[in-house]
Design goal:
The chain is an alpha+beta fold. It has two domains: 77 residues, Phosphorylase Kinase, domain 1 (2-Layer Sandwich), CATH 3.30.200; 65 residues, D-amino Acid Aminotransferase, Chain A, domain 1 (2-Layer Sandwich). It is 26% helix and 34% strand. It is built from four helices and ten strands. A five-stranded antiparallel β-sheet has the order 1-2-3-7-6. Strands 8-9-10 form a three-stranded antiparallel β-sheet. The longest helix is centred in the middle third of the chain and has 18 residues. The N and C termini lie far apart (41 Å).
């Protein structure tokens, strides 16, 4: 077996160089974290389940015209994916009050919102994924105005 070149390792996945230029192999780990990765454990089989969930979600998104990185599942823990540029944002679309929105605004959990609300958070565990605005996003070049518009349209 040939040793693959590791490109990146995160909390839940490892990315390896793919067989063709512009491709990667994504390996799903059994590691699990909570509370900004301060609590860690291994949950046997988690990577296998996450691989199948990811395959399902990405295939369904592709079927409705939402392009993504997924090419195909290779085995129980690995996928062949396209190499993409990561936008370091978490995008939350809220239709009911829950979690931090309820806490910040004093809304009861489960209350229907008058309209959908889209919130952006910078993906950075060390900073506890702070909420950011479109102004922050464009000022720091995390995404372009067009990319923000595309994200919100999706």
């Amino acid at each position: 077996m040939t040793r693959r070149k590791k490109i990146y390792e995160g909390k839940a996945k490892i990315l390896y160089e793919g067989p063709e230029p512009g491709t990667l192999i994504q390996y799903f780990k059994d590691d699990t974290t909570a509370f900004d990765a301060t609590k860690k454990a291994v949950l046997e089989g988690k990577g296998v389940i996450n691989n199948r969930i990811s395959e399902y979600v990405m295939t369904r998104l592709n079927s409705i015209g939402v392009q993504n990185h997924f090419i195909k599942r290779l085995n129980l823990r690995e996928q062949l994916i396209r190499e993409v540029e990561i936008i370091p944002l978490e995008v939350v679309c809220r239709n009911i009050a829950a979690g931090s929105l309820s806490t910040r605004l004093g809304l009861p959990e489960g209350q229907a919102l008058p309209r959908s609300i889209i919130e952006f958070f910078l993906k950075d565990d060390k900073l506890h994924d702070p909420m950011v605005t479109e102004e922050h996003i464009t000022a720091f070049n995390w995404a372009s105005t067009q990319e923000i518009d595309d994200i919100m349209a999706l």
